[in-house]
Amino acid sequence: MTNQERIALLEEYKLKERFILDEWEDREVAWPGDDVVEQMKLEVLDFTNFLIIQLKKDDNNLQNAAQNYFKDWDTEYFENEEIEFIVEVEFEAMRHAGLNIEELII
Questions:
Q1: In whole angstroms, what is the distance from residue 56 CA to residue 54 CA?
Q2: Fewer CB within 10 Å, N or C, the chain?
Q3: How would you write the chain as a 3-class SS string?
Q4: pLDDT of 105 above 90
Q5: Per-residue pLDDT reduced to its tens digit, 54-87
Q6: Are 44 and 86 in contact (CB under 8 A)?
Q7: What is the pLDDT of residues 22-45, one digit of tens each?
C-alpha cells in the first residue's frame, strides 16, 4: 500500500464517531463525562494527524517516530481505563499507517 493510500485511510478514519456511551457500557467502565471524552477524541485526532504528517514526510522511521510519540505522550489528564480505551481506538489508525503494533511499547 502506498503512503497516499494510507493517508486517505487515515483521513477517513478521522471522521468516525468514537467513545460513544454504548462503548463505555460494553467495557463496563463509567462514563467519564463530556469534557474527558472530548479530550480523548482530540488525543486520537492528534495521533492520527501525527501519523499523516509522518507519512507525508515519507519517513522511513515511522515505527521509531510512533514509539517516541508514545514515550512523550502526557497521559496525566486520563485515568488508566481511559488511556487503554484511547490506545485501543488508535490501533486502527496504527494498522492503516502500516505500524507493527506488537513492537510498540505504549
A1: 5
A2: N
A3: CCHHHHHHHHHHHCCCCCCCHHHHHHHCCCCCCHHHHHHHHHHHHHHHHHHHHHHHCCCCCHHHHHHHHHHHCCCCCCCHHHHHHHHHHHHHHHHHHCCCHHHCCC
A4: no
A5: 999 986 789 999 999 999 999 999 999 999 999 9
A6: yes
A7: 999 998 988 999 999 999 999 999
Distance CA 93, CA 106 (A): 15
pTM of the model: 0.92
**What's the maximum distance between 2 C-alpha atoms anywhere in the chain?**
40
Residue 13 near residue 93 (C-beta atoms within 8 A): yes
End-to-end CA distance of the chain: 25
Contact partners, residue 3, CB within 8 Å, separation at least 6: 55, 56, 58
